[in-house]
Each structure stands twice: as structure tokens, then as C-alpha cells.
Amino acid sequence: GRGLGTMRRLLVTGGAGFIGRNLIAHLRRSGDPLAITVLDDESLGDRRALDGLDAAFVAGDVRDPRALERVVPGHDAVVHLAAHTRVDGSIADPAHDFEVNALGSFRLLQACRRHGVRRVIAASTGGAILGEAPVPVQEAMPACPLAPYGASKLAMEGYLSAFGGAYGLSTLALRFSNVYGPGSGHKDSVVARFCRQLLAGAELTINGDGSQVRDFLYVADLAEGIRQALLREPTGVLQLGSGRPTRLTELLALLVEAAGVAPPQVRHAAPRPGEVRATWCDVARARAALDFQPATSLRDGLAATWAWFADAHRATGAARSAG
Q1: In whole angstroms, what is the distance from residue 8 CA to residue 36 CA?
Q2: Is residue 149 flagged as an active site residue?
Q3: What's the distance, CA 253 to chain centroid?
């Protein structure tokens, strides 16, 4: 049967994680009759997240050439989501960050080249690559990473470009802004952290004074952007974000409103090293190349995310009292 465009077989690395699961669910809802395989080492993701989504699961690490030899052949395209994504983790252990993000991506590209995979779309990052840049940030701005995480993703972008130029692979780096939504229980992102702390009735910790500015993108809107990238085949680098700036204090107020809880105690801790103060992105290029138009307002997205966290919290509590 026909797949997505000319694609029939898709490999998603890191596909058992937050974005992978949401992407595959979105592709299934869109009725794309793709054969989907997931490669995931389950360091963060969990194969049970794929239940009911008609995706083949292979346990393995993108750093492992044998795992890649086993799984890459026969696929038309790869969406590469497997990554180490924590800025502070990259500062604590830059070697691990390099191995997963730069070396893992390089080995994946080598396997794709060997086995004739024609299309690779990889998850990159905006703020961490560009550092403190004038806002809104744009794809063409010079890169100036402030932490090893941004450097490892910049290295990956460089290899994507090089494998396009040297070997004719069709490659695209998608620079995600701050992605949030249902299914992000294990994430260290600010929305997930706030949800967990509100549910626990704990005081909230904000690093810095809360005036930091970020771009928050709902995961279903991101998934549609990736789907369009599979359909349309642009190459190079594109930013996917809401295209709107939001202060952390404003984010917290909207979340408290969505949750219908009393405003929590907030403790201000020292700003994190290597963290960009203000970043949000211009999505004009993605709009032109992908007809990218995020449809979910921050208020609606936070309400859906809170509902998911609250359900998960109740289920855990019920399981605990039953055990």
C-alpha cells in the first residue's frame, strides 16, 4: 500500500520516548499506512508506551553499530529522536552527551548511507545551539553554544549537512523549541517539572527570577510538523516552535489556572549555568516549507497536559493503595 508520500517504511530512533510516542500516534491518527519500526534503548522511553500503535520495537542503542546493522536496512526514512537532551546533564558529563548525540548520530548516518536510506530527519534544538542571540531567533544566525548539549547537536547538524552534500542523502535538522504535552511524565522540562511539583503540593523551584523567556510548542503541533517534513522533503535546518515568547512566571500562572489549584509557594534558586536567558523562534521558514501552523494555544495545551499528569498521578495512587 502507499505510505506517506513515496515512503513505506519508517524507522524512529528514540521512538518509545515522549515525542516518539506522540509522533507515531499522530501518524496513525492521520491514516498514513506506514510500516513503523522503533529503535530505543529504554533509558528514558518504555516500549509499553507503544501499545496499540502498530509499531515494531527493537531494543538497541544508536551508538551500537551492530544494533544499527540489524535495524536500519530496508527503511525509506528515519526520524532520529534518540538523544541526551539535558543541558545540565551535558555540563556534568560532556563525554556521554557527545557519544549519544554526536557519535550516535554519525553512526546512524553511516548506516543509512550503507543501506540506501534516502531521508533522515533529526531532532535538533534552537536556543542551545544559538546561545544568547537576538530574538526572535532565526535559522541563519551564527551558532554559539553555551553548553556541551548545544555543541553536540551542532555537530549532528554539521554531519547531516555533510552527508547530504557528499553522499546525496536528503537530510533535515528540525530545531525544536520547548516541547510539552501528555506523555512527558519522565521529562525534566519546565512544564513537566511544574506539573509534578503542583501535584505533590510541593513548593516550586524557579532557577533565576522567572523572567526567562521561552517558546513552548504543544507536542501534537510538533508531530504534524514532522509529518509534513516527511511528506514535503525540505532539507537543511528549520525551526519548529510556537513563534511566541512566554515568560516562566506567565507559564506558571496559566498552568495554575488550568489546574484549578491555589498558587504554590515559589522558591527562587540560582540561575542554571549554560542556560540561555531569552529565546523564542521565528517560524516563517517552517511556515513556507511545511505549511507549519501550530494550532494549539498555550492555555489549551497546558490544560491537556495537566489532565494527563493528574490522571497518571491518580492511577499511581490507586495502584499504591491496591498494593
Answers
A1: 9
A2: yes
A3: 24
